[in-house]
Amino acid sequence: MLTKAFGAQSPTSALAPMMIDRREPGPDDVAIDILYCGVCHSDLHTARGEWPGVKFPSVPGHEIVGRVTAVGGEVSRFAVGDLVGVGCMIDSCGHCPSCEEGHEQYCEGPHGFLQTYNGWLDGSGDNTYGGYSAAIIVAERFVLKIRHGEADLAGVAPLLCAGITTWSPLRHWNAGPGKKVGVVGIGGLGHMGVKLAHALGAHVVAFTTSPSKVQDARDLGADEVVISRDPQAMAGHARSFDFILNTVAATHDLDVFTTLLKRDGTMTLVGVPSEPHPSPSILNLIFGRRAIAGSVIGGIAETQEMLDFCAEHGITSDIEIIATRDIESAFSRMLKSDVKYRFVIDMATL
Ligand code: NAP
Ligand code: ZN
What we know:
The chain is α/β, with parallel strands linked by helices. The protein is built from 11 helices and 17 strands. Bound molecules: NADP nicotinamide-adenine-dinucleotide phosphate and zinc ion.
Protein backbone atom coordinates (compact mmCIF):
# COMPACT_ATOMS: atom_id res chain seq x y z
CA MET A 1 0.00 0.00 0.00
CA LEU A 2 1.48 3.34 -0.99
CA THR A 3 1.48 5.53 2.10
CA LYS A 4 2.36 9.20 2.67
CA ALA A 5 5.41 9.76 4.85
CA PHE A 6 7.97 12.37 5.86
CA GLY A 7 11.60 11.35 5.86
CA ALA A 8 15.25 11.95 4.97
CA GLN A 9 16.90 10.71 1.78
CA SER A 10 20.40 11.05 3.27
CA PRO A 11 22.11 12.23 6.49
CA THR A 12 22.54 15.69 5.00
CA SER A 13 19.13 16.21 3.41
CA ALA A 14 16.24 17.91 5.18
CA LEU A 15 13.21 15.77 5.94
CA ALA A 16 10.61 16.07 3.18
CA PRO A 17 7.43 14.40 1.93
CA MET A 18 7.88 10.97 0.34
CA MET A 19 5.83 7.86 -0.41
CA ILE A 20 6.56 4.48 1.22
CA ASP A 21 5.19 1.02 0.61
CA ARG A 22 3.40 -0.67 3.55
CA ARG A 23 2.57 -4.39 3.48
CA GLU A 24 -1.05 -5.54 3.21
CA PRO A 25 -2.29 -6.57 6.70
CA GLY A 26 -1.79 -10.29 7.40
CA PRO A 27 -3.95 -12.50 9.67
CA ASP A 28 -2.33 -11.28 12.93
CA ASP A 29 -1.82 -7.67 11.85
CA VAL A 30 -3.46 -4.47 13.00
CA ALA A 31 -3.73 -1.59 10.48
CA ILE A 32 -3.47 1.82 12.14
CA ASP A 33 -4.13 5.36 10.90
CA ILE A 34 -1.52 7.47 12.69
CA LEU A 35 -2.94 10.51 14.48
CA TYR A 36 0.11 11.78 16.41
CA CYS A 37 3.80 10.92 16.54
CA GLY A 38 6.28 12.19 19.14
CA VAL A 39 9.72 13.48 18.13
CA CYS A 40 12.43 11.59 20.04
CA HIS A 41 16.10 12.61 20.05
CA SER A 42 16.73 9.14 18.56
CA ASP A 43 14.82 10.33 15.47
CA LEU A 44 17.36 13.13 15.08
CA HIS A 45 20.39 10.86 15.73
CA THR A 46 19.00 8.52 13.04
CA ALA A 47 17.89 11.01 10.39
CA ARG A 48 21.31 12.71 10.61
CA GLY A 49 23.14 9.38 10.39
CA GLU A 50 24.85 9.99 13.76
CA TRP A 51 24.67 6.33 14.75
CA PRO A 52 26.42 3.53 12.84
CA GLY A 53 24.37 1.54 10.33
CA VAL A 54 21.56 3.99 9.58
CA LYS A 55 19.65 2.99 6.45
CA PHE A 56 18.31 5.60 4.00
CA PRO A 57 15.79 6.72 3.08
CA SER A 58 14.86 7.06 6.74
CA VAL A 59 11.36 7.70 8.10
CA PRO A 60 11.73 8.20 11.87
CA GLY A 61 9.05 8.10 14.58
CA HIS A 62 8.47 5.56 17.34
CA GLU A 63 6.02 7.35 19.60
CA ILE A 64 2.90 6.49 17.64
CA VAL A 65 -0.77 6.79 18.57
CA GLY A 66 -3.59 6.17 16.17
CA ARG A 67 -6.86 4.48 15.37
CA VAL A 68 -7.36 0.93 14.15
CA THR A 69 -8.73 0.80 10.61
CA ALA A 70 -8.60 -2.96 9.97
CA VAL A 71 -7.63 -6.16 11.78
CA GLY A 72 -6.56 -9.55 10.44
CA GLY A 73 -8.71 -12.66 11.00
CA GLU A 74 -6.60 -13.93 13.92
CA VAL A 75 -6.51 -10.65 15.85
CA SER A 76 -8.48 -10.96 19.09
CA ARG A 77 -7.56 -7.99 21.29
CA PHE A 78 -8.25 -5.08 18.94
CA ALA A 79 -11.18 -3.92 16.84
CA VAL A 80 -11.71 -1.27 14.17
CA GLY A 81 -12.01 2.16 15.84
CA ASP A 82 -9.82 1.36 18.90
CA LEU A 83 -7.21 3.90 19.98
CA VAL A 84 -3.82 2.20 20.08
CA GLY A 85 -0.12 2.88 20.49
CA VAL A 86 3.07 1.58 18.89
CA GLY A 87 6.51 2.18 20.39
CA CYS A 88 10.09 1.39 19.36
CA MET A 89 9.61 -2.32 18.55
CA ILE A 90 7.40 -4.08 16.00
CA ASP A 91 8.75 -7.63 16.24
CA SER A 92 11.19 -9.96 18.00
CA CYS A 93 12.08 -13.65 17.75
CA GLY A 94 9.46 -14.56 20.36
CA HIS A 95 11.21 -17.65 21.73
CA CYS A 96 14.58 -16.68 23.23
CA PRO A 97 14.82 -16.44 27.05
CA SER A 98 14.40 -12.65 27.02
CA CYS A 99 11.33 -12.76 24.77
CA GLU A 100 9.83 -15.56 26.87
CA GLU A 101 10.30 -13.45 29.99
CA GLY A 102 8.59 -10.46 28.34
CA HIS A 103 11.78 -8.48 27.76
CA GLU A 104 11.51 -8.34 23.96
CA GLN A 105 13.79 -5.28 23.99
CA TYR A 106 16.64 -7.64 24.93
CA CYS A 107 15.71 -10.22 22.26
CA GLU A 108 18.62 -12.64 21.81
CA GLY A 109 17.56 -13.70 18.31
CA PRO A 110 20.01 -13.16 15.44
CA HIS A 111 18.87 -9.56 14.82
CA GLY A 112 17.56 -8.55 18.26
CA PHE A 113 14.18 -6.83 18.27
CA LEU A 114 12.89 -5.29 15.04
CA GLN A 115 12.97 -1.52 15.35
CA THR A 116 9.90 0.43 14.28
CA TYR A 117 12.21 2.42 12.02
CA ASN A 118 15.71 1.69 10.79
CA GLY A 119 14.99 -2.01 11.29
CA TRP A 120 16.25 -4.54 8.78
CA LEU A 121 13.33 -6.69 7.64
CA ASP A 122 14.32 -10.35 7.58
CA GLY A 123 14.59 -11.87 4.14
CA SER A 124 13.69 -8.83 2.08
CA GLY A 125 16.51 -6.65 3.46
CA ASP A 126 14.06 -3.74 3.35
CA ASN A 127 14.22 -0.91 5.87
CA THR A 128 11.36 -0.34 8.31
CA TYR A 129 9.65 3.04 8.28
CA GLY A 130 8.36 4.72 11.42
CA GLY A 131 5.59 6.98 12.55
CA TYR A 132 6.23 10.13 10.52
CA SER A 133 3.68 8.63 8.15
CA ALA A 134 -0.05 8.33 7.60
CA ALA A 135 -0.48 4.68 8.54
CA ILE A 136 1.36 1.61 9.82
CA ILE A 137 0.74 -2.15 9.90
CA VAL A 138 1.89 -3.89 13.12
CA ALA A 139 1.56 -7.44 14.47
CA GLU A 140 -1.00 -7.57 17.30
CA ARG A 141 1.66 -8.67 19.83
CA PHE A 142 3.37 -5.25 19.52
CA VAL A 143 0.25 -3.05 19.65
CA LEU A 144 -0.64 -1.30 22.93
CA LYS A 145 -4.07 -0.37 24.28
CA ILE A 146 -4.64 3.31 25.08
CA ARG A 147 -6.94 3.88 28.05
CA HIS A 148 -6.50 7.67 28.27
CA GLY A 149 -9.33 9.86 26.97
CA GLU A 150 -9.26 10.92 23.34
CA ALA A 151 -8.49 14.55 24.31
CA ASP A 152 -5.16 13.42 25.84
CA LEU A 153 -4.04 11.49 22.80
CA ALA A 154 -1.25 13.81 21.60
CA GLY A 155 0.26 13.86 25.10
CA VAL A 156 0.11 10.06 25.26
CA ALA A 157 2.30 9.58 22.16
CA PRO A 158 5.62 10.30 23.98
CA LEU A 159 4.82 7.65 26.60
CA LEU A 160 5.53 5.04 23.89
CA CYS A 161 9.27 5.82 24.03
CA ALA A 162 10.12 8.55 26.57
CA GLY A 163 7.64 7.07 29.05
CA ILE A 164 8.70 3.43 28.86
CA THR A 165 12.43 4.20 28.58
CA THR A 166 12.29 5.94 31.96
CA TRP A 167 9.65 3.68 33.56
CA SER A 168 11.53 0.45 32.93
CA PRO A 169 14.77 1.42 34.75
CA LEU A 170 12.89 3.27 37.51
CA ARG A 171 10.96 0.06 38.22
CA HIS A 172 13.97 -2.24 37.77
CA TRP A 173 16.05 -0.23 40.27
CA ASN A 174 13.08 0.12 42.66
CA ALA A 175 12.38 3.84 42.58
CA GLY A 176 9.71 4.39 45.22
CA PRO A 177 9.03 5.60 48.76
CA GLY A 178 12.17 6.07 50.83
CA LYS A 179 14.45 6.24 47.77
CA LYS A 180 16.37 9.30 46.61
CA VAL A 181 16.30 9.32 42.81
CA GLY A 182 18.09 11.72 40.45
CA VAL A 183 17.06 12.44 36.88
CA VAL A 184 19.74 14.02 34.69
CA GLY A 185 18.70 16.08 31.64
CA ILE A 186 15.21 17.54 31.56
CA GLY A 187 14.27 16.86 27.97
CA GLY A 188 11.77 14.42 26.48
CA LEU A 189 12.94 11.42 28.49
CA GLY A 190 13.98 13.36 31.59
CA HIS A 191 10.70 15.20 32.10
CA MET A 192 8.87 11.86 31.97
CA GLY A 193 11.46 10.41 34.38
CA VAL A 194 10.67 13.17 36.87
CA LYS A 195 6.90 12.70 36.54
CA LEU A 196 7.08 8.91 36.85
CA ALA A 197 9.61 8.79 39.71
CA HIS A 198 7.45 11.31 41.60
CA ALA A 199 4.29 9.29 40.95
CA LEU A 200 6.09 6.16 42.18
CA GLY A 201 6.73 7.95 45.49
CA ALA A 202 10.49 8.57 45.32
CA HIS A 203 12.24 11.75 46.53
CA VAL A 204 13.16 13.21 43.15
CA VAL A 205 16.07 15.51 42.34
CA ALA A 206 16.22 16.94 38.81
CA PHE A 207 19.64 17.83 37.36
CA THR A 208 19.61 20.35 34.55
CA THR A 209 22.10 22.51 32.66
CA SER A 210 19.29 24.98 31.87
CA PRO A 211 18.45 27.52 34.61
CA SER A 212 15.24 28.27 32.67
CA LYS A 213 13.94 24.79 33.52
CA VAL A 214 14.22 25.03 37.34
CA GLN A 215 10.63 26.03 38.05
CA ASP A 216 9.30 23.67 35.38
CA ALA A 217 11.15 20.74 36.94
CA ARG A 218 9.48 21.51 40.27
CA ASP A 219 6.11 21.68 38.54
CA LEU A 220 6.81 18.30 36.92
CA GLY A 221 7.24 16.80 40.40
CA ALA A 222 10.89 17.28 41.40
CA ASP A 223 11.39 17.81 45.14
CA GLU A 224 14.71 19.55 44.45
CA VAL A 225 16.38 20.93 41.33
CA VAL A 226 20.15 21.25 40.91
CA ILE A 227 22.06 23.09 38.18
CA SER A 228 24.55 20.39 37.30
CA ARG A 229 27.19 22.93 36.24
CA ASP A 230 27.26 24.43 39.79
CA PRO A 231 29.95 22.43 41.67
CA GLN A 232 28.86 23.74 45.07
CA ALA A 233 25.25 22.74 44.57
CA MET A 234 26.42 19.32 43.34
CA ALA A 235 28.72 18.83 46.36
CA GLY A 236 25.73 19.27 48.66
CA HIS A 237 24.34 15.97 47.34
CA ALA A 238 27.53 13.86 47.59
CA ARG A 239 27.01 10.17 48.50
CA SER A 240 23.26 10.52 48.86
CA PHE A 241 21.49 8.92 45.88
CA ASP A 242 20.09 5.40 45.65
CA PHE A 243 19.62 5.73 41.91
CA ILE A 244 20.33 8.21 39.13
CA LEU A 245 18.72 8.02 35.68
CA ASN A 246 20.92 9.81 33.14
CA THR A 247 19.06 10.79 29.94
CA VAL A 248 21.62 13.22 28.47
CA ALA A 249 21.97 12.94 24.68
CA ALA A 250 25.51 14.44 24.58
CA THR A 251 28.97 13.34 25.68
CA HIS A 252 29.71 14.52 29.24
CA ASP A 253 31.66 13.89 32.46
CA LEU A 254 29.97 11.02 34.32
CA ASP A 255 32.08 11.42 37.48
CA VAL A 256 30.17 14.49 38.64
CA PHE A 257 27.17 12.18 39.02
CA THR A 258 28.76 8.92 40.24
CA THR A 259 30.20 10.86 43.24
CA LEU A 260 26.60 11.60 44.22
CA LEU A 261 25.70 7.90 44.55
CA LYS A 262 25.50 6.23 47.96
CA ARG A 263 27.37 3.01 48.61
CA ASP A 264 25.83 0.42 46.24
CA GLY A 265 24.01 3.12 44.27
CA THR A 266 23.57 2.84 40.50
CA MET A 267 23.55 5.40 37.71
CA THR A 268 21.79 4.07 34.63
CA LEU A 269 22.52 5.59 31.24
CA VAL A 270 19.74 5.73 28.67
CA GLY A 271 21.13 8.55 26.49
CA VAL A 272 23.10 7.42 23.44
CA PRO A 273 25.48 10.20 22.35
CA SER A 274 27.14 9.74 18.97
CA GLU A 275 30.62 9.96 20.61
CA PRO A 276 31.60 8.02 23.77
CA HIS A 277 31.72 9.64 27.22
CA PRO A 278 35.20 10.11 28.73
CA SER A 279 36.06 7.04 30.82
CA PRO A 280 34.50 7.30 34.28
CA SER A 281 36.85 7.34 37.29
CA ILE A 282 37.38 3.76 38.46
CA LEU A 283 38.18 4.98 41.98
CA ASN A 284 34.75 6.60 42.17
CA LEU A 285 33.19 3.24 41.42
CA ILE A 286 35.25 0.92 43.62
CA PHE A 287 35.20 3.18 46.70
CA GLY A 288 31.49 2.82 47.24
CA ARG A 289 30.75 -0.29 45.17
CA ARG A 290 28.89 2.03 42.82
CA ALA A 291 27.61 0.88 39.43
CA ILE A 292 27.07 2.42 36.02
CA ALA A 293 24.42 0.53 34.05
CA GLY A 294 22.46 0.84 30.82
CA SER A 295 18.85 0.21 29.85
CA VAL A 296 16.96 0.18 26.57
CA ILE A 297 13.23 1.02 26.27
CA GLY A 298 11.07 -1.66 27.97
CA GLY A 299 9.11 -4.83 27.19
CA ILE A 300 5.59 -4.87 25.75
CA ALA A 301 3.94 -6.02 29.00
CA GLU A 302 5.67 -3.33 31.04
CA THR A 303 4.83 -0.72 28.36
CA GLN A 304 1.15 -1.61 28.83
CA GLU A 305 1.65 -1.47 32.61
CA MET A 306 3.17 2.03 32.28
CA LEU A 307 0.38 3.24 29.95
CA ASP A 308 -2.26 1.95 32.37
CA PHE A 309 -0.45 3.51 35.36
CA CYS A 310 -0.34 6.84 33.51
CA ALA A 311 -4.04 6.64 32.56
CA GLU A 312 -4.91 5.91 36.19
CA HIS A 313 -2.73 8.74 37.54
CA GLY A 314 -3.65 11.29 34.86
CA ILE A 315 -0.09 11.41 33.52
CA THR A 316 0.72 12.54 29.98
CA SER A 317 3.74 14.21 28.43
CA ASP A 318 4.09 18.01 28.31
CA ILE A 319 4.03 18.70 24.61
CA GLU A 320 4.23 21.25 21.85
CA ILE A 321 2.21 20.18 18.80
CA ILE A 322 3.87 20.83 15.45
CA ALA A 323 3.16 20.26 11.75
CA THR A 324 5.36 17.98 9.63
CA ARG A 325 6.82 21.03 7.88
CA ASP A 326 8.18 22.23 11.28
CA ILE A 327 10.32 19.16 11.87
CA GLU A 328 13.66 20.70 10.86
CA SER A 329 13.21 23.65 13.23
CA ALA A 330 12.10 21.20 15.93
CA PHE A 331 15.36 19.26 15.46
CA SER A 332 17.36 22.52 15.74
CA ARG A 333 15.58 23.46 18.95
CA MET A 334 16.13 19.97 20.34
CA LEU A 335 19.89 20.39 19.83
CA LYS A 336 19.72 23.57 21.93
CA SER A 337 17.83 21.75 24.76
CA ASP A 338 14.94 24.08 23.94
CA VAL A 339 11.99 21.69 24.03
CA LYS A 340 9.20 21.89 26.59
CA TYR A 341 9.22 18.97 26.73
CA ARG A 342 8.36 16.92 23.68
CA PHE A 343 7.41 17.90 20.15
CA VAL A 344 4.49 15.89 18.81
CA ILE A 345 3.58 15.91 15.13
CA ASP A 346 -0.10 16.26 14.27
CA MET A 347 -0.24 13.76 11.42
CA ALA A 348 -3.27 15.50 9.91
CA THR A 349 -0.70 18.01 8.60
CA LEU A 350 1.10 15.39 6.50
P1 NAP B 1 16.21 15.60 24.51
O1 NAP B 1 14.76 15.89 24.57
O2 NAP B 1 17.07 16.34 23.56
O3 NAP B 1 16.76 15.77 26.01
C1 NAP B 1 18.10 15.61 26.38
C2 NAP B 1 18.43 16.59 27.51
O4 NAP B 1 19.79 16.39 27.88
C3 NAP B 1 18.36 18.05 27.13
O5 NAP B 1 17.07 18.59 27.18
C4 NAP B 1 19.27 18.68 28.17
O6 NAP B 1 18.57 18.84 29.39
C5 NAP B 1 20.32 17.62 28.39
N1 NAP B 1 21.55 17.94 27.63
C6 NAP B 1 21.69 18.14 26.31
N2 NAP B 1 22.97 18.42 26.00
C7 NAP B 1 23.65 18.35 27.14
C8 NAP B 1 25.02 18.51 27.47
N3 NAP B 1 25.95 18.79 26.53
N4 NAP B 1 25.39 18.34 28.76
C9 NAP B 1 24.47 18.05 29.69
N5 NAP B 1 23.16 17.93 29.44
C10 NAP B 1 22.76 18.06 28.18
O7 NAP B 1 16.47 14.07 24.18
P2 NAP B 1 15.57 12.77 24.54
O8 NAP B 1 14.61 12.52 23.45
O9 NAP B 1 15.12 12.88 25.94
O10 NAP B 1 16.67 11.62 24.39
C11 NAP B 1 17.80 11.59 25.24
C12 NAP B 1 18.77 10.51 24.78
O11 NAP B 1 18.21 9.23 25.05
C13 NAP B 1 19.09 10.51 23.29
O12 NAP B 1 20.47 10.19 23.12
C14 NAP B 1 18.23 9.41 22.74
O13 NAP B 1 18.72 8.84 21.55
C15 NAP B 1 18.30 8.43 23.88
N6 NAP B 1 17.23 7.43 23.94
C16 NAP B 1 17.54 6.22 24.46
C17 NAP B 1 16.57 5.27 24.61
C18 NAP B 1 16.88 3.97 25.25
O14 NAP B 1 16.10 3.04 25.13
N7 NAP B 1 17.99 3.84 25.97
C19 NAP B 1 15.27 5.55 24.20
C20 NAP B 1 14.99 6.80 23.68
C21 NAP B 1 15.96 7.74 23.56
P3 NAP B 1 18.86 20.09 30.36
O15 NAP B 1 18.48 21.30 29.56
O16 NAP B 1 17.93 19.83 31.50
O17 NAP B 1 20.29 20.03 30.76
ZN1 ZN C 1 12.74 7.30 21.33
